[in-house]
Amino acid sequence: MTAGFWSILNIVGALAFFIYGMKLMSDGIQRAAGSQMRNILRTMTKNRYLGVFTGFLITALVQSSSATTVMTVSFVNAGLLTLVESAGVMMGANIGTTITAWIISVLGFKIKLSHYSYPLFAIGIPLFFANKGKLKYWGEFLIGFAILFIGLSELKGAMPDLKSNTDLLAWIQNVNSYGIFSRLLFVLIGAFVTVLVQSSSAAMAITLTLVYTGWLPLDVAAAMVLGENIGTTITAELASLVGNATAKRSARIHSMFNIIGVVWMVILLPYVIDWISTFVENFSHLFEGHVKIKDDVDASNALKTYKLSAFHTFFNLLNVLFMLPFVPWLVKLATWSVPSSEEDDDEDHRLKFIGTALKTPELATVELQKEAAHFGNVVSRMSGFTRTLMNSAEPKEQKKMLKKLKKYEEISDDIEIEITEYITKLANQELTPKTSLRLRSVINVCNDLERIGDIFYQISKTVELKNEEQAYFTPGQRQNINTMLDKIDDAFAEMISNLATPSYDNVSKAKADELEHEINKFRNFLKEEHLTNLGSPNYPVKSAMIYNNIFNALEKVGDHIINVSESVVGEI
Length: 572
Hints:
Elements: H1 2-43, H2 48-62, H3 65-77, H4 83-96, H5 98-108, H6 113-130, H7 135-158, H8 166-175, H9 180-197, H10 200-212, H11 218-231, H12 233-240, H13 245-282, H14 299-323, H15 327-337, H16 361-391, H17 395-426, H18 433-468, H19 475-500, H20 510-533, H21 541-568
């Protein structure tokens, strides 16, 4: 029992070394080249076919399909990738992760890589402590690479002797005699192991080690590899939990793609394994002699690791080729399986017109103007939410409006940041004076729209405080606020009309000025009436102060609305 427990600890410790090394290596290269990889992901996804190559490239570089899928889900959540584009990236990530299996098979079992780990430490440690630019991160990458192969070497050595565990081996062989049911069982085991270690690469390393040491037959190992493809989807699913509906759908596409592929491969597995075995044996001379073997290696089991890696690559390549034409159907199925909820009503309020690739500034200004009009339409909806909040007596509906106003305030922040970042990149190009003026106009428009979102959110917090303190408006106060909101809505309508005008040169702000004057005039009337009524027994001071704050805040909304029209006509 003690020996068995000690063996388990050795295996777990070696696996922990492997996982930690892979994490260091992946984190190091992401930090060293992260911005470039994010740019690749944002720009090289024009269609799902190019997305496959992008996903493969990034995963091959960072040696982590999880990192690629999490990055993809976050980009979908931010509205920078569409579902169709994300599907291609995730399919490519599945192919990219097969590189890890080949590294382990070709290098991990052929030579004592742990002997080469120490020179890598000698190079990596000074770089890590150099703390100069990206040298530190490249040092982290080398250290992770060294630790990874120490862990793999120890994992291979920690596996117990097969000859002393004949009962367990007999059980595996017996369970493997039930055809497709056996395959399904080992698929579940593979998925469980991957979920447990939270790394498909680590699960693959375990499987390859078990094959190399003779514990697993090739068909059992292949079934486990299929299960690992399902288990790895849990990372994207977990990452999407904090995202919007679109992010959840992106993760769901990844899951469906892997599950559908596993289903058809489980059925064909015996035939595919026979074909792969024949193929690898016919080309086995390519795997022999290129590296001097320093261990007493069982040649048959070593060849099985090549067969397993070949199967892993063949399955993912074939599954991508088979499923890629059906991406639109996967998107529809994911959309149906993850319906929009109240909390996800922002999914259509991200950037709609400007893409991730920069165009000439003159062409981009047209799309930016459309984006600004869309932004104005989104922010204007907060007036309706505020009206409902002010007039509703139902706590449930009030809570719903408070959540909506908070969410829309966050949306306004995000849209302003994204548009401003896009314009900043455009500004690095040569601009004509007219284009420069238009870009400044759009930036000012976005600043004012974002400020409107902030004010409406502040009003919602004021109303929430009023409700908590059970301070009630008089019918006259409520009616005055509704009248002010009517005038604000009229001003919003004119603002959106001005923003939607194809050429800002054709915009007149005369009507906007008139509406803004009416808002100011009504605010002044309310202020005088408020000061007159203060001290009256039927005019509670607590609610009166809140009432004063709200109508003054709404007048500030009117100020920002007229600022938008002024920016449109070039008064900046």
